[in-house]
Specification:
Length: 234
């Protein structure tokens, strides 16, 4: 007679899905990212001062078209400025309470204030952040502005297409100070030499005018010197 002996029963392990993100949730950064990663259908969610904000549907005229102009503007500058990196709609980890997802950002790749971590997220404060503020204007100009200031973001641009207005803030003595355009309606970055924005063309959504002003500035002495400094950091 042949006898058989059964080994110990194997325990079945079940993976419990994390709770869904909800507007207004109070979470820490790690739990926020755990829930966000489990919801690939959600395209934009942010943690600002420990509170979850989820984006409304995006309209073309109010957000999509302005966003594309900003991406082309920053992308053109980065293409002419080796050592810089532009990213669209990317999650940034500031601290335990703030994980924004700005519409656009520009950062120095090596030796800058931010880096891309092994997890694929940006860690630290990029030198420049851009937000297109339509339905999010109240958040972008209040809680998010203060979160960016505390994190040490050097420059912050908020374009409000429906109001035909755009503010460019620079960090001075731990406060954001708004730049004023010159007589030619131009604003110039303090962190990125050669990065020039034609405000009149921008609020008119004139992409050609925005790029024309930028192309006149890149390649000049200040920009060339900046590119040389970046090359030495690499």
């Amino acid at each position: 007679m042949i006898s058989t002996r059964r080994g110990p029963a194997r325990r079945r392990t079940t993976t419990v899905a994390p709770p869904l993100l909800q507007n207004g949730d109070h979470l820490g950064a790690a739990e926020f990212l755990r829930r966000y990663s489990a919801m690939p259908e959600v395209k934009k969610a942010e943690l600002i001062n420990g509170i979850v904000y989820m984006a409304s549907p995006v309209r073309a005229k109010q957000h999509g078209i302005p966003d594309s102009i900003m991406q082309v503007w920053l992308g053109t500058y980065a293409a002419h400025t080796p050592g810089t990196c532009v990213a669209a709609n990317s999650t940034v980890r500031f601290d335990a309470d703030n994980v924004p997802q700005p519409d656009a950002l520009l950062m120095i790749e090596r030796g800058g204030r931010a880096r891309i971590g092994k997890d694929g997220y940006i860690h630290g404060a990029p030198e420049l952040i851009v937000e297109i503020a339509a339905s999010s204007a109240s958040l972008d100009l209040n809680d998010k502005l203060h979160a960016y200031r505390r994190a040490g973001v050097l420059e912050y641009i908020v374009w409000r297409p429906e109001e035909k207005a755009c503010g460019w803030f620079v960090l001075e003595d731990d406060n954001f100070i708004q730049l004023r355009p010159d007589k030619s309606h131009l604003l110039r970055s303090q962190a990125f030499p050669g990065l020039v924005l034609d405000m009149k063309a921008l609020v008119a959504k004139n992409a050609a005018g925005v790029l024309a002003a930028l192309n006149k500035s890149t390649g000049k002495a200040a920009h060339k010197n900046f590119v040389s400094r970046l090359a030495k950091q690499g």
